[in-house]
Amino acid sequence: MAQSRLFLIDSFGFIFRAYHARARSADSPMRTSSGLSTEAVFIFGNMVRKLMASYHPEYTAAVFETEGPTFREQAFTDYKANRPAMPADLAEQIPYVRRVLEGMRIPVLEYTGFEADDVIGTIARQGAAAGVEVVIVSSDKDMMQLIGDRIRMLNPAKEDLWYDPEKVVEFLGVRPEQVTDLLALKGDAVDNIPGAPGIGDKGARELIVQFGSVEATLDRAGEVQRKTYRESLQNHREQILLSKHLATIDAAVPIEWNLDSLATRSPDADSLRTLYKELEFFSLLKELEPAPVQQPRDYRELESGEAVASLLAELPACAPVAVAVRLGASGELLSSATIGLAVEPGKAVSVSEGMFDLLRPLLEDPERAKTAHDITRVLLALARSGIEGRGFTEDPMLYAFLISADPAACSAEAAAARYLDRKLGPSVEEHADCALQLSARLGPQVDSRGLRGLYESLDLPLTPVLARMGRHGIRVEPAALASLSRHMQAEHERLTAEIHTIAGHPFNINSPQQLGKVLFEEMNLPVAGRTGKTKSYSTAADVLEGLAGEHPIAGLALEYRQITKLKGTYVDALPQWIDPSTGRLHTTFNAAGAATGRLSSSDPNLQNIPVRTELGRKIRAAFVPEAGWKLLVADYSQIELRLLAHMSRDPVLTEAFRHGEDIHTRTAAEVFGTPPLMVTPEQRRDAKAVNFGIVYGLSAFGLAAQLGISRKEAEHYIASYFERYAGVRKFLDETIAEVRQTGTTRTLFGRLRPIPDINSRNPNARGFAERTAVNTPLQGTAADLIKLAMIHIDARLSELRLRTRMLLQVHDELVFEAPPEEIEPAAKLIKHEMERVHALEVPLVVDIGVGDNWRDAK
Question: How many other C-beta atoms are found inside a 10 Å radius of the C-beta of residue 600?
């Protein structure tokens, strides 16, 4: 029969480790939307969860430090004197760590006047004496002195590295009972244990191995050959013995504990659920079993026309109806399609496809208020069944996005878990029920944040526009893509052969590890960085760009990557998305897909086709209009810079845009002190980089890398810019200062985005947050403006009964197709609506292009 095991967790050791590990990381520290730090709680909790799941100990305890003096401070007043005070953002997490342990029903042990090490040592020795196998869960090497019969140590931070007496010898070079002797000589900077001056780790180990103990070493100090060691031992005997006393864990402190009270129990799911919601640990929330259903669920399938008719007759006239449509993984209707309807919480029905016509009057009634999670997708799904959905007024997906600006929080599954403590199942009845309850829960939050006007004027009216765009789709020529695929395959093979020739042997160019080995070990190119987790060589695009001047293989690898990505993502993939029934590609636009408020598109994603590369332009050339028609492209000119002028009220920037000047030439003239007519193309290029760099928070380092100039020159460019555009500097500073106070940034139309890392202790995270705080109002307002323009244009095209169709929205441009006779009036209408969508301090300018394909219409 296996022995029972007692796991003793060195709590503060892992809490500090979690905190400092995240501080060193380039990743953004974890915070709630209110700004509460949570990384130590999350990492510590995960460590404990993994520990319990992996080893299933019969007994467990988490041991904590207490405040107040111990015998060590009484013996040596400077004990731990070098330790800084606990950082405030860690201190605020300690109560939540305790709540995690409480929720997991893991007992917390702490005894005033005794350090955690002594408590662990005492319990470990007593537990082992009672016949229990004790496991000390710690990364502290001091604990290794306790290892012995029935006592081992486990370090989860080292991929579950186990220590027994033999492993201690391998790791420290001394036996467990000699660990305190080792520490007595070499000291411990963390605890301010002085040790023997001049004797380090290697020397201490050699002396203990030679003499067996610190006492024997001191008694035989005259035999030590190395003079500095010998004199240190002879001159500091009392200090060395004191150091051993301080380093020795007292395994016989007078504490009371009971093994049965440490018996492992099942976690308290309700307590953890409350805590995870409070800390916004939504990934962990999903892993918990669903909360017990508080209300009965009455879900049923209506199997006859009479049952459907009876339901419709009984529907209250004023109550909103929640609608859900059973969709496949890619958003299409499944072969056995069903529609779910819910009118009151916990009560919903489903109707099969054969009876959809009975629901048509309800679903097409513009006066009957309806709710749907992701109205755009529901309208598209209904349209595929021949139903023109109208009257949809509430969308909990859009509500969730307005509240959080977090795309990950907006799916039906995520919102149900986050706001209803509910694990959403696949049934269409449950989806309709959840949509109804989420609307009731989130609608008031939208109102309380002052976002109802934005929802009703922009987000909601955009949904049918996006649905119509998805229904129209756009033509793509498979033959053009097939020809381009063959060309790219030939280039792919050429590049592969050339790279392998330079390297001197074949290797997998797609493997960052193999490419890194070739570049940095075999070819000895300068290492620019390593990846965060595996510490392997970084071969990121910016690294390869920096190496391109050092060796041609880096440029070839970049070109290889671009061709591989574009060929796989677009050239070979797009034909598979063409609907055989329409001959067109139907992407789906999502208004909750990007934190800035920009639209995203999926199935397929058309937002990232390059526009400035030759290959990207060739891909765009495959997008064509209806036969005999033309594509019309309307593109906002420098919209974010114009918004910067509007928001900053900078007089120089504002004047330039009001007078229709080329802003990059104007900036070059201001920064370089050159008359506008004498600005060179190179100066204009540099000024353009500075202009857009300011919008995106580009650092001097980044600008230097982008322009191939020194950091000092880049700093001069940026300083000169802010000297001439002082209003911009003031705007940026005031924006960041305001976000530091509120933790939130807003667009011109009031769309909010939490910026919890704005006061982070991590410089990388704080810098990213500052850039986000500045860029989001500009990029987000640009996104809101083009969405508002889309609503106006859609309405005007319908009002004038034009056949021109809006097909795509990609960042700052809209793509339409128009019959020949409508090109001129449609272009005039589109330009007018986009340029006058909202009054600004500077004019909005739209460039219109017409062509036989997307590339040529630019």
Answer: 17
Residue 835 CA, distance from chain mean position:
35
Statement: the pTM of the whole predicted model exceeds 0.90:
no
Which residues, including other chains, have CB under 8 Å from residue 730's CB and lie 6 or more apart? 648
CATH class held by domain 5-171+250-262: alpha beta
Neighbouring residues of 244: CB distance < 8 A, sequence distance ≥ 6:
180, 181, 183, 184, 214
Mean pLDDT taken over the chain: 88
The alpha carbon of residue 109 and the mean position of all alpha carbons in its chain are separated, in whole angstroms, by 36
Distance CA 551, CA 93 (A): 49
The b/e string for 220-229 (b: 16+ C-beta within 10 A; e otherwise) is ebeebeeeeb
Instruction: State the CATH architecture for 641-781.
Output: Orthogonal Bundle (1.10)
Q: How far apart are CA 91 and CA 600, in angstroms?
A: 40
Cis peptide before 396 (omega within 30 of 0): no
Residue 843 is given by DSSP the state -
Residues forming a β-bridge with 188: 193
Which one-letter amino acid corresponds to residue 763?
A: P
Listed in order, strand segments (DSSP E) in 12-115 are 59-63, 108-109
- DSSP H/E element including 394: strand 392-394
Location of structure tokens 């709710």: 371
Say if residues 777 and 739 touch (Cβ distance below 8 Å): no
What local confidence, expressed as pLDDT, does residue 27 receive?
Answer: 47
- Please provide the distance, in angstroms rounded to a whole number, between the alpha carbons at the two ends of the chain: 77
Burial 302-322 (b: 16+ CB within 10 A, else e): beeeebbeebeeeeeeeebbb
Task: Specify the length of the chain in residues.
Answer: 858
The string of DSSP letters for 624-665 reads E-STT-EEEEEEESSHHHHHHHHHH--HHHHHHHHTT--HHH
Answer whether CATH 1.20.1060.10 is correct for domain 478-585.
yes
Please identify every stretch of the chain with a pLDDT value under 50, giving residue numbers as ranges. Answer: 1, 23-27, 329-335
- 813: which strand partners? 635, 810
Sequence ranges of the domains in the chain: 5-171+250-262, 294-473, 478-585, 641-781
From residue 607, alpha-carbon distances to 458, 587, 598, 660, 671 in Å are 21, 10, 10, 29, 34
User: How crowded is residue 757: how many other Cβ atoms within 10 Å of its Cβ?
Assistant: 24
User: Which residues, in sequence order, are CB contacts of 578 under 8 Å at separation 6+?
Assistant: 476, 478, 584, 585
Residues 612, 600: Cα–Cα separation, whole Å: 20
CATH code for 294-473? Answer: 3.30.420.10
How far out from the chain centre does Cα 340 lie?
33
**Neighbouring-strand partners of residue 753:** 745
- Among residues 351, 698, 438, the alpha carbon closest in space to that of 542 is found at 698
Q: Give the tens place of pLDDT for each residue, 111-120.
A: 887 888 889 9
Digit-coded pLDDT (tens) for 140-163: 888 999 999 899 999 987 777 899
d(CA 145, CA 248): 8
Tokens matching residue 764: 């990388």
pLDDT given for residue 334 in this prediction = 45
Distance set, CA 38 to CA 22, 33, 148 (Å): 11, 11, 36
